[in-house]
Amino acid sequence: MNEFDYINKYFKPLTGNIGRNLKDDAAVFKQNANKDLIISTDTLVEGVHFFGTEHPADIAKKSLRVNLSDMASMGAKPLFYNLSLSIPKNKVDFFIPNFCKGLKEDQEIFNLELIGGDLTSSPSHINITITIFGQTRTGTSISRSGAKNGDFLFVSGVLGLSKIGLDNFNKTSNHLSIAQKKYLIPQPRVSLGLLLNNVANSMIDISDGLIQDATHLAVNSGLCIHLDLDKIPIPHIQNVTNNLLLESALYGGDDYELLFSCNQDQEQLIKKISKEVNIKITKIGNFDIYEDKFLKFKNNSEIPKNKSYLHF
Amino acid sequence: MNEFDYINKYFKPLTGNIGRNLKDDAAVFKQNANKDLIISTDTLVEGVHFFGTEHPADIAKKSLRVNLSDMASMGAKPLFYNLSLSIPKNKVDFFIPNFCKGLKEDQEIFNLELIGGDLTSSPSHINITITIFGQTRTGTSISRSGAKNGDFLFVSGVLGLSKIGLDNFNKTSNHLSIAQKKYLIPQPRVSLGLLLNNVANSMIDISDGLIQDATHLAVNSGLCIHLDLDKIPIPHIQNVTNNLLLESALYGGDDYELLFSCNQDQEQLIKKISKEVNIKITKIGNFDIYEDKFLKFKNNSEIPKNKSYLHF
Questions:
Q1: Where are chain B's structural domains?
Q2: CATH topology for the A152-297 domain
Q3: Cys staple from A26: which of A82, B40, B87, B191, with CB 3.0 to 4.6 Å?
Q4: On the CB side of B26, how many CA atoms lie within 13 Å of its CA?
């Protein structure tokens, strides 16, 4: 099978009207005057973002979900995506059918369609780039820069689980399986993001650890975040110390929880939304005027040195 | 410098309003009810699509231009693009500043802006994925499927030059330099594509050789193309035989000329458009009812076996 055969057999069934059956040089999207189109791209590289030993269907889901998480953090409804897959020839036969199976399953869960992309060979490792498209009413997407002095800072779910899963990925242990699963297939907070659209005034998804992503909100809003270390929601995992979990929460990546600010008046509404989507939401700090630091711990201790993952 | 430093120093200056200074998780594009958004993706892999010894600014231009060519073939006006760059750590210092210089130069020529993307490390080779966005009036983009029985088939420019450039890329020879340059930095026919928007009824850009791309038009339009071999525009290159040039035209890739159909009545208009953009346009065949083959040579000889590049 050559690339056209693979495209026809495995990728074409994932498309709808916008992708024009992958028959043309481009996809065609009819615009709507009352909407903004929200566009984001994430790349996953074998050996950097995933091991390569994962099942291709799981790699597909992770690739889609890290992108879906960006739609969630903008408060946008995901619509469709395109995909570039570069893959060594000897991996094609097994990888592509299973990868597309994973895409299909997640397309159904998140109501998505494929609109196009590129399929090429690669001299060594697999490289996956997805550009995802979502929509909001005009002017209602949530930036990183809208927090106001006095706002509360909230976070969804628990933090640090994914990093524990990554560090113990090849261990067989029942009490680690929930962490391994969270690392393998994250849960983007799409429904929560949509409900926060008129509530949160700044938002980000935590992909690089709480410290780094909270700093993005503080810097872009020009404020200081007072972070309450004691309130950071960490999971309980047998044989893993709370200190290690807290370090994972602060500096580990791949949590894909939503971190957001809103006016103090909205606290009751946040509780209601939390119940509605059945996702824990925790108040972990508040915004203050910037003086000398973008991030302070409430007990006034120093913020540990940034240990978040850097590519270069 | 880490990836945030590179993004701030080199990529942020390439952005405008839509990319929100790369500060948010996604770009935001305000839709227009009278327009279609046209979306296409092309990936260039080091060792597959380029050698890696080219100057990074030239690699940047090629990456943008192969994408621009897809906008041209849809009859769309290019607007903006996003970029995913995966690159080995030891190449970052030299590659990124020069790559961004090339992007900037072409952004000015083609009136484009960067709206976002992803920058990651790579264990070995460079992988570049660009998604490009263009616009047409609603419902006016040009598909591959609109040719009608009796239509003429036209092609812009000359064919085969790029393949000769590729095959002789490392030779130092004056008479090969035009071919090498065409391979290195293609010339997407954006202005021509826009002028053909109300004229051509099917169009494709020739990236995989004339035979393969003409077949796409024929198959998708459900017709047979009678191709006049004697009319195919090939360049004159000293010391390169016409036979080799014709073979390059038929099966070589990377020409990025426009191949399109239109009603016979439009032939005079095509000549006028050709003069306006100062690009040679040649009638090389016509469309007929499909009987047993999608492609026939006018002298009834057999079409040579497909030798176009395949990734798998």
A1: 3-137, 152-297
A2: Phosphoribosyl-aminoimidazole Synthetase; Chain A, domain 2 (3.90.650)
A3: B40
A4: 32
SS3 B55: coil
pLDDT of residue A301: 63
The DSSP string of A66-116 is: HHHHHHHHHT-EEEEEEEEEEE-GGGHHHHHHHHHHHHHHHHHHHT-EEEE
Sign of CA pseudo-dihedral B31, B33, B35, B36: positive
Q: Which of A203, A213, A312 to mutate to test the interface with B (most CBs of B within 10 A)?
A: A312
Residues of B in contact with A30 (CB under 8 A): 36, 138
- What is the distance between the alpha carbons of residues A30 and B112, in angstroms, rounded to a whole number? 21
Question: Do strands B127-137 and B77-87 pair parallel, antiparallel, or not at all (unpaired)?
Answer: antiparallel
Task: Give the CA radius of gyration of chain A.
Answer: 20
Pairing of strands B295-297, B223-227: parallel
Question: Over the stretch B108-117, which tens digit does the pLDDT of each residue have?
Answer: 999 999 999 9
Half-sphere exposure of B49 (CA within 13 A, CB side): 25
Q: What is the ipTM of this complex?
A: 0.94
Listed in sequence order, the residues at least 6 apart from A167 whose beta carbon sits closer than 8 Å to its beta carbon are: none
| Predicted pLDDT at B298 | 84
Q: Which residues contact A224 (CB under 8 A, 6 or more apart)?
A: A218, A287, A288, A289, A290, A291, A293, A294, A295, A296
* Residue B253, pLDDT score: 85
- The architecture of the domain spanning A3-137 is 2-Layer Sandwich (3.30)
- The CA distance from A103 to A260, in Å, is 29
Residues 74-103 (A) with a CB less than 8 A from some CB of B: 74, 76, 82-84, 86, 89, 92
Lowest mean pLDDT among A17-21, A154-158, A305-309, B105-109: A305-309
pLDDT of residue B103: 98
- Cα(A134)–Cα(A72) distance, integer angstroms: 9
DSSP string, B182-239: HHHS----HHHHHHTTTT-SEEEE-SS-HHHHHHHHHHHHTEEEEE-GGG------TT
Q: Pick the closest to residue B169 from B158, B184, B157, B155 (CA basis).
A: B184
Return the structure tokens found at A187: 């849960």
Give all strands (DSSP E) within B18-150, no chain letters: 27-30, 35-45, 77-87, 113-121, 127-137
**Ramachandran bin of A227, using left for φ above 0, alpha for ψ from -120 to 50, beta for the remaining angles:** beta
- With beta carbons under 8 A apart, name residues in chain B contacting A90: none
Nearest CA among A102, A103, A118, A134 for reference residue A22: A118
Q: Which of residues 108-127 of B touch A (CB under 8 A)?
A: 115-125, 127
The CA dihedral of B17, B20, B22, B26, to the nearest 10 degrees, is -110
- Whose CA is closest to A211, among A255, A157, A150, A145? A255
Could you read off the pLDDT of A218-254 as tens digits, one per residue? 999 999 999 999 999 999 998 889 889 999 999 998 9
Q: Are residues B143 and A24, on separate chains, in Cβ contact within 8 Å?
A: yes
Q: Are A197 and A140 in contact (CB under 8 A)?
A: yes
Instruction: Look up residue B279 and give its two tokens.
Output: 């690009």
As a whole number, the mean pLDDT across chain B is 94
